[in-house]
Design a protein that fits this description.
Helix content: under 10%
Structural class: mainly beta
Oligomer: single chain
CATH superfamily of the largest domain: Immunoglobulins
CATH topology of the largest domain: Immunoglobulin-like
Number of strands: 49
CATH architecture of the largest domain: Sandwich
Shape: elongated
Low-confidence stretches: none
Distance between the termini: 157 Å
Strand order of the largest sheet: 11-19-18-13-14-15
Number of domains: 5
Radius of gyration: 57 Å
Strand content: over 45%
Length: about 675
């Protein structure tokens, strides 16, 4: 039990069979020891009984004279793999190196327990492996077309006295490193390289054995990734004493350099611009050095984006390898020469703008009469811009009605003139815009009043929506070429610049309408000078002297300026002495007459004299007030309060300004 817990030194189970001239690596490790983690190792060799010192990790004088030269040249060395493990490396092993190798570890344990060395037998055999190209030829060069098939052969044989197995790997080098294509392992299993698994499953990559120990690599559907140098890498394996497989040597031979001529598909023109209703002419060219019999299959695609995949694109037209073309009315596909295919699109429209690309596949005949697709390629997209046929026309805006005052009507007519190329496939709509008058250093903002879409549906802007719905603003089409904007009652906030935009719409083949042109009119300014309203009222007493019981009579004459067709409403007020307790505020509203000449008693409360006051309109600007049977209590200052009204929108009256006349005094004491 104590021995089981002690130090254990391990080397591989022998014998180790190695081939003369190869590099031999013998590992040695130690475990279950005391002391420092990094352990030292000594290696010795024996052909019969006595051991000769080879090399040590800790004693530079350990090496015997027999091995000093080989150790000094690095042909024999120790390579530490961890603190508790090293490898003895012997380059170019020879038959004289056959024998027993002992690995020892100096003790660092508190007590001596376990084993401190281990031995392994190494057997050196002759090199019986031979690897060569087909029939012993050196590397050849192959020049192939994309989609071709090719085969490469190498021969590998061994005459080893031991029972060894061969592991054959075909490799390719297209850069700096060799990559595995396909292997037949020493256990008789096929193993494809990481990049060749799918092609191996599809049968496009094969490895077959043949007579005379040949190994044949078959490649179908060659592409550009198959170009490069090919070699046959053969390793020899033997089963060790522990039943594990050990590689004892490896050889390789370069077989061929393969060049693949890529098949390219390009459209002869780059970016194209064509006018509406002209023809679009594109040619798809296939570049290949294939000289045998082949047929091309060509498909033309269209997409709105250059990044669309084939599944997203629209197939326009195709020609199969039997030269059968799919049907189309406006599009044709023709075979210009052996490798060129022409697409012709007649009567192009704006919606034909986009990206065009062609896909070509090459087919070759097989022995059974069928056709086999060997390569398929898609061109880069070509941008095609179809320029619309713009109708030629001008736009003229004029005002048939211009306001001079607020609430006057405004009418603007937007007229299409000198129209050319405006046949049935062209339709006109209008947009109305307003721009407020601002000081020169302020930013001018434009507001949309209304616009029409292609089917003449009117879309209202925020500024005009409510007034249009109320009938205050009217948009109409007076004639085929005349659009009208009418403001029934123009307000001061409507003052500014107005302009119209006439849009031309073109009808596409799918009967949709697409805007092709906008023409903007010169602005028309709607403006009138606004001056302050003025109102003057003059009161005149018709009888200078009278006594109580007589009739009081006064007139009010009104004059105004800057008011359109004014009408006046009149209110008669009286300012009584402060001693009059009937009206503590001092002012009494007696009688009024509105702008429509309707009379109303206001604060006149004397029931005995209901008809004692009269207010009447003498002329448009003159009003007369009478008060019958005057009494002492009627004493005071009398005035005319006049309001000027102007016509507003919708038949309503709008208050313009107020005026107050001079006072007329009734004083019975003075007049007595």
């Amino acid at each position: 039990l104590a021995f089981c817990r002690g130090r254990v030194v391990r080397v591989p189970k022998g014998p180790l069979i190695r081939v003369v001239g190869t590099e031999v690596v013998i590992p040695c490790s130690v475990s279950d020891y005391d002391g420092p983690s990094e352990q030292n190792f000594d290696w010795e060799f024996s052909r019969d009984i006595d051991f000769v010192r080879i090399v040590s990790t800790w004693d530079s004088t350990f090496t015997s004279e027999e091995y000093q030269k080989r150790v000094g040249h690095g042909d024999i060395k120790l390579r530490r793999s961890s603190n508790d493990a090293v490898e003895l490396v012997i380059r170019n092993i020879q038959p004289t190196d056959q024998g027993r190798y002992k690995c020892s570890t100096p003790s660092t344990d508190a007590t001596v327990q376990g084993n401190y060395d281990a031995e392994v037998q190494v057997k050196v055999i002759s090199d019986g492996l031979s690897v060569s190209g087909s029939k012993g030829r050196s590397s050849t060069s192959l020049r192939l077309s994309e989609g071709d098939s090719f085969k490469l052969r190498c021969s590998a044989i061994t005459s080893s006295p031991e029972h060894t197995h061969l592991h054959v790997t075909w490799q390719i080098k297209s850069g700096l490193t060799w990559r595995d294509i396909l292997s037949l392992t020493h256990e008789g299993k096929f193993h494809p390289g990481p990049a060749y698994e799918e092609r191996y499953r599809n049968g496009d990559i094969r490895l077959d054995t043949g007579a005379n120990d040949t190994y044949r690599l078959s490649v179908s559907q060659a592409s550009s990734v198959d170009a490069g140098a090919y070699r046959c890498l053969v390793s020899e394996w033997v089963r060790g004493a522990d039943s594990s497989w050990q590689k004892i040597q490896e050889k390789s031979v370069e077989i061929a350099n393969v060049a693949i001529q890529r098949t390219d598909v390009v459209i002869s023109t780059s970016n194209v611009s064509v006018t509406e209703r002209d023809s679009l002419d594109l040619t798809c060219n296939i570049t290949t050095d294939r000289s045998g019999i082949f047929q091309a299959e060509v498909m033309w695609y269209f997409s709105v984006s250059p990044d669309d995949t084939l599944s997203d694109a629209q197939l326009l037209l195709s020609m199969d390898h039997d030269s059968v073309v799919s049907d189309s009315t406006l599009i044709s596909l023709s075979h210009v020469d052996r490798n060129s295919y022409r697409l012709l699109v007649r009567d192009v429209a704006v919606e034909d703008s986009g990206y065009y690309f062609c896909q070509a596949a090459l087919w070759v005949p097989l022995h059974n009469g069928s056709w086999h697709k060997v390569v398929e390629r898609t061109s880069a997209p070509v941008s095609v811009v179809v320029t619309a046929l713009e109708p030629d026309y001008e736009v003229f805006l004029n005002a048939s009605k211009t306001p001079k005052f607020s609430d006057d009507p405004t009418e603007l007519n937007c007229r299409i003139t000198n129209a050319q190329d405006t046949e049935a496939n062209i339709r006109f709509t209008v947009s109305w815009w307003y721009r407020q008058h601002l000081p020169s250093d302020d930013v001018v903002t434009e507001e949309l009043l209304a616009t029409m879409d292609a089917d003449w549906t009117l879309l209202l802007g925020d500024r005009s929506r409510e007034r249009t719905q109320n009938g205050e603003i009217i948009f109409s089409k007076k004639a085929v070429n005349v659009f009208s904007l009418r403001i029934q009652w123009t307000s001061e906030s409507d003052r500014g610049d107005y302009f119209c935009v006439i849009s031309a719409w073109s009808r596409h083949r799918n009967n949709s309408w697409v805007k092709s042109k906008d023409v903007t009119s010169a602005p028309v300014s709607i403006f009138w000078a606004t001056q302050d309203y003025t109102l003057t009222v003059e009161a005149v007493k018709l009888k200078p002297f009278f006594v109580a019981g007589h009739t009081f009579e006064m007139t009010c004459k009104v004059s105004s300026k800057n008011i359109k067709t004014p009408r006046y409403s009149v209110l008669i007020t009286a300012e009584k002495p402060l001693t009059d307790q009937s009206n503590p505020n001092g002012t009494t509203r007696i009688i009024s007459l509105n702008q429509d000449s309707v009379v109303r008693l206001e604060d006149w409360t004397d029931q005995t004299r209901v008809d004692g006051v009269v207010l009447e309109k003498v002329q448009e600007n003159e009003f007369r007030y009478r008060m019958y049977q005057t009494q002492i209590s009627d004493a005071g200052l009398y005035r005319c309060v006049v309001t000027a009204w102007s016509p507003g929108g919708g038949g309503m009256w709008r208050e313009a300004v107020n005026g107050l006349s001079n006072p007329i005094q009734i004083d019975f004491q003075m007049s007595g």
